[in-house]
Amino acid sequence: ATPTSIMVGTGRGAEMGVLFRKGEALQLLKDAAVVAVDKTGTLTEGKPALTDLELAEGFERGAVLAAVAAVEERSEHPIARAIVEAAAAGGLELPAITGFESVTGFGVRAEADGVAVEIGADRYMSKLGLDVTAFADTAARLGDEGKSPLYAAIGGKLAAIVAVADPVKEETPAAIAALHELGLKVAMITGDNKRTADAIARQLGIDEVVAEVLPEGKVEAVKALKGEYGKLAFVGDGINDAPALAEADVGIAIGTGTDIAIEAADVVLMSGSLKGVPNAIALSQATIRNIK
Ligand code: ADP
Ligand code: MG
């Protein structure tokens, strides 16, 4: 492409809220065969709400929710806010917390009034040597409903299964349909539960799902998808998306996301809307076509 056509294309992108931080990205995007997308905060609002809480025998709802919320008050994860809000809505008094720890990719732990409390994914419970099969049917049902199941352990015993649901952003279905119309495949990469991710992917018509990915695994997932499809654009918003944004042929950050993601990206969607992705690809195709 000529410098002039790149300048024109970059200007047109800016008008539609798509910031090309590198002119190269405008040229590369037209060759993308697959768009890999982070789930939480990118396809979804990133604002989950607590939807379900089922207790193990011998545990009481208010006490479990208060203990778990007290621990989650120390966490920055969107899941944490959902749980803290549910406890606040119930007017629960929270116990005192000591020894808070975030176990990246697994969950969080602390002592609440001196009693150990752990909350996180099923793999966290496995790590702790706790058997979650008593909740297998519930977990499967929650996952099929697109909700994310989490487990709480109190005093070294499995206490409850909790679910949070994160609504899909309003513009997500149209953005995915537009990518398909442009002839691209769409893949989802997430740390969330496989069953939950599959349910959301089915609902959105997403072609491939890579789920239960640990934070450092996103780069590996991007490499594998590149090998499978060819040129890849990755779209993400979080701190843990930065390495994947750098690894992609074109990294696209949601403008409302974290600064670290934005800095790692070649393209920034200023409006925060995922529709900027097909718009940017269509613009790249048009820009390059025009100068031929
Ligand atoms: P993601 O951005 O996909 O949620 P993370 O690596 O942040 O990826 O988290 C992976 C998984 O670990 C989550 O899906 C959840 O099951 C569990 N987890 C992480 N942080 C928390 C937390 N504060 N409370 C409960 N579970 C958590
Ligand atoms: Mg995210």
Automatic annotation (TrEMBL):
<protein>
    <recommendedName>
        <fullName>P-type Cu(+) transporter</fullName>
    </recommendedName>
</protein>
<comment type="similarity">
    <text>Belongs to the cation transport ATPase (P-type) (TC 3.A.3) family. Type IB subfamily.</text>
</comment>
